[in-house]
């Protein structure tokens, strides 16, 4: 078959109604064959004879949506020089908008080398094992849908897994469970809306290739941090089909979320691919142009730099690779209406050569891009390389998963951190973000996430229990700064159970009252457990799926979480758009924040420096909050007292003097969650007992 010349851009397979243009980038290839597959897997090859600016391209009339295809790329087999071309290996299109399914490891040898020696080329064809790329029809009726564009300080994020969230959810049709359509169902969205969630952060939905070693163990890469297609929604989450239908179904999910006022944020993995180290399979990038796509060692291009712990690091220094990342991001915003991205191991993308450089080309391009600079950008600000922990060092426009917040709050509630650290994190981490012009919402606050214990397990287990991962319980974090959160040593089953539930409420209250952007892990609102597994990346089963069988305790925790989120939405003092100053306001005669000891006196320098202090109070002034994202007068809202007791024993707090408020009403108490707002009324300089390891929140009533 002969192809017409076609066009070098756009890359990938583009159907125009009459035929399809194909274009593939490879700087070092010598010949590229487009391979078309019929439904019976009969293969027809077509040489892409035109080569423009490293793009190999051709146009085939009559080829349209549903056509399955792949590439065979010819070039030097010279691993010692970084070249691993092998035309016996079928390759997935990096720009494919749809990929039909998983790698079928038992149907072909996907390694490009033979006899265990990566210098020796393998001549076995692997087309039967490789999922085919699919030409799609990109049309979709969005009606009047558009990005939600909710301001950061009004955002509450909910991290979830597309499959795990709905696999067991009542009210979802059996054939839709665990799919994009299931997540778009009334039952799923109703839970999110009722809870008060404003944004879902989806674990990776780019097309995934499970590692061979997991497949051999009967496991999968459930979390999905094993990307092989950066423009293709994962086929395994589609209920309607995998020959392009997954794209339409994913768009339908985004549209349904937007109708409910919920933003969609994608967890994206541009730091590495599913191909592993130099001994891994040849699925796409390695065979298309290994030296261009991956960061190889300068003195030994046979091997890879690895800043990710996965065996390889994608090479964003290369212009073609950087273009792939940007094209992927723009595609999901413009064509799929996604509202933002969370970048896995983002420090790896910032490495120009070896050091992390926050002024790298990656950031420069995003900042000048008229589309990407306007969406939500979240960094996981670390990688596993030297100097990779970069919390607080990302540029303006970026928010960050604040690992320091997580660690400090866990330490406080187990009695092992200074109150100064706690106060900094509670008020937005100004020490990390203020000097470079960012705001409190630069801090994405979280206590738990997909990686680690769930909230219930955090306060339950002293040791991880990862045996079912089949790695001898050696995997997963070994020091979570969290085991039992100080509960060890308590006696009595009822006492331990009650204290664990209270600690869960303490974490939820701390998270949702803190300045910054709260992120809740799916299921933490009712106590989802993974039975001590703190690394469920390979558990596509009941260990990781959200269980919806709720007892009275679970329902009570849901109600408490809803109460907190509603409180946050209703009172701007908990979501201030600017950092606190401690300065007095003219009208109120009180500062925006005032910290005090349990005896009601102001914290002194010595109090802040004490390493054994675990109790303090905060006055949060709701008057005259300036919101720089909106025009108009300052916001005037309610003021609050937050009383934190991180000790085991009950403490008596004395309230501040009358200039901070004459009368105070109870808003909530984590030790008595069933007590209604307004049940207690106290006066200035009055006293209130705060149970050990608990929070009391008081609202000014006069």
Report what the structure shows.
By secondary structure, the protein is α/β, with parallel strands linked by helices. The chain has a domain at 577-700: Immunoglobulin-like. The strands form 9 sheets. An 8-stranded parallel β-barrel has the order 13-14-17-20-21-22-23-24. The model has no long low-confidence stretch (mean pLDDT 94).
In short:
Helix content is about 20%, strand content about 20%. With about 700 residues, it is of the alpha/beta class. The model has no long low-confidence stretch (mean pLDDT about 95).
SSE order and pairing:
Blueprint: E1 12-15, E2 19-25, E3 31-37, E4 43-47, E5 50-52, E6 55-61, E7 68-74, E8 77-78, E9 83-84, E10 113-114, E11 117-121, E12 133-134, E13 157-160, H1 162-166, H2 180-183, H3 186-195, E14 199-202, E15 206-208, H4 212-216, E16 227-233, H5 245-259, E17 263-268, H6 285-293, E18 296-297, E19 300-304, H7 319-334, E20 340-343, H8 346-349, H9 361-368, E21 376-379, E22 398-401, H10 403-412, H11 419-426, H12 430-433, E23 443-445, H13 455-458, H14 493-513, E24 517-521, H15 552-570, E25 593-596, H16 605-609, E26 615-620, E27 640-645, E28 651-654, E29 663-669, E30 681-683, E31 687-690, E32 694-700
Parallel strand pairs: 13-14, 13-24, 14-17, 17-20, 20-21, 21-22, 22-23, 23-24
Antiparallel strand pairs: 1-2, 2-6, 3-4, 3-7, 5-6, 7-12, 8-9, 10-11, 15-16, 18-19, 25-26, 26-27, 27-32, 28-31, 29-30, 29-32
Helix pairs in contact: 10-11, 14-15
């Amino acid at each position: 078959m002969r192809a017409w010349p076609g066009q070098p851009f756009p890359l990938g397979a583009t159907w125009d109604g009459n035929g399809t243009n194909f274009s593939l980038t490879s700087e070092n290839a010598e010949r590229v064959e487009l391979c078309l597959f019929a439904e019976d897997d009969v293969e027809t090859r077509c040489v892409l004879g035109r080569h423009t600016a490293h793009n190999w391209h051709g146009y085939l009339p009559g080829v349209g949506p549903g056509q399955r295809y792949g590439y065979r790329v010819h070039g030097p087999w010279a691993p010692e020089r970084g070249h691993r071309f092998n035309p016996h290996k079928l390759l997935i299109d990096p720009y494919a908008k749809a990929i039909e399914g998983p790698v079928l490891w038992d149907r072909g040898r996907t390694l490009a080398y033979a006899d265990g020696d990566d210098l020796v080329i393998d001549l076995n064809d692997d087309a039967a094992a490789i999922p085919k790329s699919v030409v799609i029809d990109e049309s979709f009726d969005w009606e009047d849908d558009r990005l939600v564009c909710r301001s950061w300080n009004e955002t509450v994020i909910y991290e979830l897994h597309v499959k795990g969230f709905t696999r067991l959810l009542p009210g979802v049709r059996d054939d839709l469970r665990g799919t994009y359509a299931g997540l778009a169902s009334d039952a799923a969205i109703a839970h999110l809306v009722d809870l008060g969630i404003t944004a879902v952060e989806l674990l990776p939905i780019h097309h995934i290739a499970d590692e061979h070693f997991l497949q051999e163990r009967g496991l999968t890469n459930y979390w999905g941090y094993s990307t092989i297609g950066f423009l293709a929604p994962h086929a395994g989450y589609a209920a309607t089909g995998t020959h392009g239908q997954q794209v339409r179904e994913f768009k339908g999910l985004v549209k349904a979320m937007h109708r409910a006022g919920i933003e969609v944020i994608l967890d994206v993995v541009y730091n590495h691919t599913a191909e592993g180290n130099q001994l891994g399979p040849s699925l796409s990038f390695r065979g298309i142009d290994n030296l261009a796509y991956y960061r190889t060692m300068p003195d030994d291009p046979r091997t890879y730099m690895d800043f990710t712990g996965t065996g390889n690091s994608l090479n964003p220094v290369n212009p073609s690779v950087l273009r792939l990342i940007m094209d992927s991001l723009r595609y999901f915003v413009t064509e799929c209406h996604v509202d933002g991205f969370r970048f896995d191991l983002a420090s790896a993308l910032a490495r120009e050569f070896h050091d992390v450089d926050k002024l790298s080309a990656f950031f420069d391009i995003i900042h000048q891009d008229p589309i990407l600079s306007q969406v939500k950008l979240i960094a996981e600000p670390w990688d596993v390389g030297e100097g990779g922990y970069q919390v607080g060092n990302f540029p303006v426009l970026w928010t960050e998963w604040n690992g320091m917040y997580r660690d400090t709050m866990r330490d406080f509630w187990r009695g092992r951190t200074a109150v100064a650290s706690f106060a900094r994190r509670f008020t937005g981490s100004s020490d990390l973000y203020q000097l470079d012009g960012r705001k409190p919402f630069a801090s994405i606050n979280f206590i738990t996430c997909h990686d680690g214990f769930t909230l219930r397990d955090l306060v339950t287990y002293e040791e991880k229990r990862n045996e079912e991962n089949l790695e001898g319980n050696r995997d997963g974090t070994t020091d979570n700064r969290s085991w039992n959160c100080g509960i060890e040593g308590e006696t009595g089953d009822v006492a331990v159970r009650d204290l664990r539930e209270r600690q869960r409420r303490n974490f939820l209250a701390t998270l949702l009252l803190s300045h910054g952007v709260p992120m809740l892990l799916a299921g933490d609102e009712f106590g989802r457990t993974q039975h001590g597994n703190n690394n469920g990346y390979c558990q596509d089963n009941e260990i990781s799926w959200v269980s919806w069988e709720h007892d009275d305790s679970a329902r009570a925790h849901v109600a408490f979480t809803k109460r907190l989120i509603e409180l946050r939405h209703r009172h701007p003092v908990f979501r201030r758009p600017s950092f606190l100053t401690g300065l007095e306001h003219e009208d109120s005669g009180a500062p925006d924040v005032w910290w005090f000891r349990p005896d009601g006196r102001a914290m002194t320098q010595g109090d802040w420096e004490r390493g054994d202090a675990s109790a303090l109070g905060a006055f949060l002034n709701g008057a005259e909050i300036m919101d720089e994202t909106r025009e108009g007068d300052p916001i005037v809202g309610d003021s609050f007292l937050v009383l934190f007791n991180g000790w085991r024993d009950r403490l008596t707090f004395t309230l501040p003097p009358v200039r901070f408020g004459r009368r105070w009403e109870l808003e909530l108490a984590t030790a008595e969650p069933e007590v209604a707002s307004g049940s207690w009324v106290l006066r200035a300089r009055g006293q209130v007992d705060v149970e050990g390891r608990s929070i009391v929140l008081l609202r000014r009533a006069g």
